[in-house]
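Re: [help] complex structure
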Amino acid sequence: MTPAEFREAGHALIDWIADFREHIPEQPVRAQVEPGEVRRSFPAEPPQKADSFSSLMADLENKVVPGITQVQHPMHYGWFPSNASLASVLGDIASSGLGTLGISWESCPALTEVEEVVCDWMRQLTGLSEQWRGTIHDTASTACVTAMILARERASDFSKNGNGLQSVASPLVVYSTSQAHSSIAKAVQLAGFGQHNLRYIDEDPYTRAMLPMALSEAIRGDLAAGHIPAGIVCSVGATGTTAMDPVAEIAAIANEHNIWLHVDAAMAGSAMLLPEYRHLWEGVEAADSVAWNPHKWMGTILDTALFYVRDTAHLERVMSTNPAYLQSSADGQVIQYRDWGIPLGRRFRALKLWFHLSLDGIDAIQARLRRDLDNAQWFRERVETEKDWQVLAPVPLQTVCIRHEPPGEDGQPMTGEDLDAHTLEWVGRINDSGQAFLSPSLLDGRWMVRVSIGVEGTTRKHVEQLWDLIQASV
Amino acid sequence: MTPAEFREAGHALIDWIADFREHIPEQPVRAQVEPGEVRRSFPAEPPQKADSFSSLMADLENKVVPGITQVQHPMHYGWFPSNASLASVLGDIASSGLGTLGISWESCPALTEVEEVVCDWMRQLTGLSEQWRGTIHDTASTACVTAMILARERASDFSKNGNGLQSVASPLVVYSTSQAHSSIAKAVQLAGFGQHNLRYIDEDPYTRAMLPMALSEAIRGDLAAGHIPAGIVCSVGATGTTAMDPVAEIAAIANEHNIWLHVDAAMAGSAMLLPEYRHLWEGVEAADSVAWNPHKWMGTILDTALFYVRDTAHLERVMSTNPAYLQSSADGQVIQYRDWGIPLGRRFRALKLWFHLSLDGIDAIQARLRRDLDNAQWFRERVETEKDWQVLAPVPLQTVCIRHEPPGEDGQPMTGEDLDAHTLEWVGRINDSGQAFLSPSLLDGRWMVRVSIGVEGTTRKHVEQLWDLIQASV
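Output below.
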């Protein structure tokens, strides 16, 4: 395709995207397709000759769009917000159009250095001190795998350079809680520790926060057994109920025992753009690594996961390779991001953060976050004051965990499997309707419903609509 | 930013990109900036208020563009081609514009199912049998880490679910060659095997292909020592000289000993789109995993790395987690790509492959690849027939490894450090000039120059220009 052909098709595509975005509120929130339906609408065999752009766009419209769950829909309250602000989309388009290659500083100095700049801007905007250096990963899951490998190597005296993890005589242990995101257990497993070496520390029964005393005890027990405490993953805004582990107390314990402390603030990191919320990760300065996702609530389009460390020498020692064909005279004077993560090659991801910050402005982003926090408190109050409804966990951010617990047939409050069936029924009815989307999730083995507020387009009016819809559904 | 504002800015951006692409041939190939120059052109502190789109675009033009090494330039012959075809850029723009979220089938059924469709199309287009199932990773490096973890878990009876790699009494061993990409050693280290458990098997001194007999011997030696052979990485088109390990013979050995065989065809995978080149990976059907990068020579914009396995049950058993908040009624009927790789969330990457195949058409892609293969042979012949010039390795694909070996001051052919200095001098002169870009690389401890042909815009005329330029530079 020539630049001239691209120009023509590109204009049509921009209009199509703008139209698509304008009409999202009229779409069902959750895709209304059956498993396999989208796949079967495509030919099983690859196209043998080129197609026209207009025919391709018709397929995009007719085959793909119906298969999209509209996470940009103002009535989407599922999982966590996954905003893709149009300002950041422009940055992403610029990245695609430039067609750069990030395998070394030399392959695109601007790609490396703008990433340096925006990671440092984000550091300042979240109140982290100058000791932190950041990079952009695809997801917090990948950042966590990296953190677990950094922990493993510190605790094993760089076993990777010798005979590997197998050469370490005593088991290496990682600590977290049952509230931690599923990617934590996955990271521990992928890094080779083994699931049995992941300790789920007791939590406060209401706040679901890790109990530091229980952590200390577990570490003492492991030390007594000759094990090596290697890593702690502390959740700031855990997925289920946005539980907040007490970072300062955990960091003190981690430092006492020289254990790598990774702070997973995938969701709550956005709140750190608001100075009045930074107490939620107080103590973070004493951690070893921090990850959070601007591609969630803040709204820099996926994939934008920030990963900060204090000890970049350790990071590079663990993650670096230095093949001859990538050596250059700039070595030693510049960052080689290939030595800061798993993949060798990277896209120019910094552009979407730069565009987002520059075009929307931090003031507007902060105002939106505060709006969502207010809406969550408003919603919590509604649920709390309504008969038969329960708010099941504190609401430190924008997610409210609720359950409808009406009397059962015997007049007693519904419990057990009856309650589970009731919960899944009413939330299923809403999700099936396409009018809104909510995530059911398990808490203490029972289903509850997470109302996660924070789509860019979600205003108070939409939250009011949701509450009406929920009440009508039970 | 509203859709209306996006529409206006988007049109301007499309024109800017089309202009940028049109004018690439007038740019220096390698960025002419000093380390830190781009970074220092940005404010050290984050923007406090929103900027206008036109001011941002001026910064993009004036600060970012000079810091780009133009890998889309027709005179770029460095590393490997990293084509970003404009057809695939349109697909990428569509992906950004849609703002979808891939954390489960339910979060965007179309994202999952179109990925299924295009991975299967690519399977057919490269002649792989129906036993293979594919997914898109960011890079072949990440695919290799995944393959090494799959190998580790098969050889350790899923130690990840128990006490981890440390609980396995005998060392697990991986085999490759010194020609293998640096990401192979990195993957072995990250997966916890330890560098000492990576065996570099002897190569043919001219073709640099792994010697199957030497592999057999190494495995026998490890077995005799009580070690556990766990993985083999076979390179099809290794980075240095595009060496081709003999897949069929290696696969026979792997199967005999039940060792996971990963085929790294990051570069050469594109050639498998040409039926007449598929003999280069003959035997691939007996491997366990295969990775290759359409984002290299084929030209589907980064990040598009295909990863195929035969045993998806093993893949899912190793990589899956199933958190409550992501469970849905579709489970078991659909693919959950989060269980096929490291990250939980993914972009709608399939769109760029779909757009690329549909808009450019496979015929045109094949014709371009054949053009490059012809150009490489033409170039090889020129070098071979010119006095004092050497072609240092076979040219099975599009990369020609060359050296100028003139007589030294004593009249004898230049060798050793004199030769190294001469090589780095002439290639440095070309790279500094901005007229073309070539990668120097080490072969047997001495510098040589890789001429990697295959940028979308590189025609015979450009290759002729390069040869003139090279001859004038020595």
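The longest helix of chain A spans residues 362-385.
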